[in-house]
Structures are given as structure tokens and as C-alpha cells.
């Protein structure tokens, strides 16, 4: 189509019945978009050339740096590992087993004041799940991606946890079993699925090989 960049802004209908829809923008202009933070796309190996790989240096849960081993964050020559962004991957996304364990272990530490709901985990296949009965709300730390170039993407808890205020339940939505509807082969280590981008304006700058984003109400 000859576009130099495209962008979208996804909104959520989890807790409302509005008819507002997200936006898709096709842009034929060059240059930076006002207010965006940028990080370069990584060159994808031939085995996964159809993915958009992002250069993630590390991940934080709240203020805690997780020190994810670099072998999981950079795409291998066989197309495995690395971090991709995919608006078609439902839910919060995917994490390979070792990364999932590092992330959820830290979540469990920071959310230890809430009671684990093993019943919800059994019913949903998600883990960890929490029952926050007796609390006015549940406080979930942000998930922060530290990108090459210095940009940080701060994903609020409501974007990567499924929260049911009526039942006082909240479950971590990242998939680690490959049960999502889309089959991704070869396997990246992390997929930023669509709920992580909700209320973010995200831009794929094809001309300049970079990914841009900013928080906004979509």
C-alpha cells in the first residue's frame, strides 16, 4: 500500500457497553509523531521475518528489576526467543516458561497481602489468581518494559490482569501453555498481546524501522 507507517489505538469494552471503537491510521508521511516515545525494531531472523521484534533490555514489576536473562530477550538465529508485539494475539500475551516463572514469582511477593484463589486457577487455567474480598479494590503493580534507546512502556495492572469486581477476583492473563487461539511458530519468549496495548497509541514506523507509543484514552 506504500504507507510509511501505521498506527492504532485499542480501547477496552471490559467494563462498559459504549459503542466507541478503536482507530487504525495509515500514514504516508515521514518523520516523528508528536508525543511518542520510540524504540528501534530489531532485525528479525529469516525464520521469523514476519514478526515485529522489539529490543527489550529488561522488565520491571513495580520498582523491582527482574534481570531477565538476555538469551530470552534477543531473537535467536532460529527465530526462537525475543520479544514481539502482536495486536492479533488475544489477552495479555504469552511468556515462555522460565520468563513466566520469574515474573509470577515477583508478582506473588508483591501481592502477598491478597489471598490466592486456587479455585479460580483451577477453573480458568490462569495463575496466579487472587481473591480480594475484604479489600475495597486490588492494587496490581505495573509491568514495565525497558526498551533499547531508553523508552519505557508502563503497562497498568488492568491491562495484564483480568479483574472481576463483582466476584472480587483477579487473574494474571499471560499465557504460558500455548493455549491461545493463535498458533505462533517459532516461539518467541514474550508476546505483547492486544490487551497490553489498550489505551496506548502505538505506531509502526516502517520507513525508519522503529516502534512508537504513548498513553492516551482510546
Automatic annotation (TrEMBL):
Pfam families: TAXi_C
CDD domains: pepsin_A_like_plant
All copies of domain Peptidase A1, residue ranges: 1-214
Positions of transmembrane segments: none
Gene Ontology molecular function: peptidase activity
Keyword vocabulary terms for this entry: Hydrolase, Protease
Alphabetized InterPro entries for the sequence: Pepsin-like_plant, PEPTIDASE_A1, Peptidase_aspartic_dom_sf, Plant_Aspart_Prot_A1, TAXi_C
GO biological process assignments: proteolysis
Protein's name in the database: Peptidase A1 domain-containing protein
Organism of origin: Vitis vinifera
Amino acid at each position: 500500500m506504500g504507507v510509511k507507517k501505521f498506527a492504532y489505538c485499542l480501547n477496552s469494552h471490559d467494563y462498559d457497553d459504549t459503542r466507541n471503537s478503536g482507530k487504525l491510521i495509515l500514514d504516508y508521511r515521514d518523520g516523528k509523531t508528536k508525543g511518542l516515545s520510540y524504540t528501534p525494531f530489531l532485525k528479525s531472523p529469516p525464520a521469523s521475518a514476519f514478526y515485529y521484534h522489539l529490543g527489550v533490555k529488561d522488565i520491571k514489576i513495580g520498582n523491582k528489576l527482574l534481570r531477565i536473562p538476555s538469551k530470552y530477550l534477543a531473537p535467536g538465529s532460529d527465530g526462537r526467543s525475543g520479544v514481539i508485539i502482536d495486536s492479533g494475539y488475544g489477552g495479555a500475551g504469552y511468556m515462555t516458561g522460565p520468563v513466566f516463572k520469574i515474573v509470577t514469582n515477583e508478582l506473588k511477593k508483591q501481592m502477598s497481602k491478597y489471598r490466592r484463589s486456587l479455585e479460580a486457577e483451577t477453573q480458568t487455567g490462569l495463575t496466579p489468581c487472587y481473591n480480594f474480598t475484604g479489600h475495597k479494590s486490588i492494587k496490581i503493580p505495573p509491568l514495565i518494559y525497558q526498551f533499547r534507546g531508553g523508552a519505557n512502556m508502563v503497562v497498568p495492572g488492568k491491562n495484564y490482569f483480568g479483574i472481576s469486581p463483582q466476584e472480587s477476583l483477579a487473574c494474571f492473563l499471560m499465557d504460558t501453555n500455548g493455549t491461545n487461539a493463535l498458533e505462533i511458530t517459532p516461539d518467541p519468549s514474550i508476546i505483547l498481546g492486544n490487551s497490553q496495548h489498550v489505551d496506548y497509541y502505538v505506531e509502526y514506523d516502517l520507513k525508519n524501522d522503529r516502534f512508537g507509543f504513548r498513553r492516551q484514552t482510546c
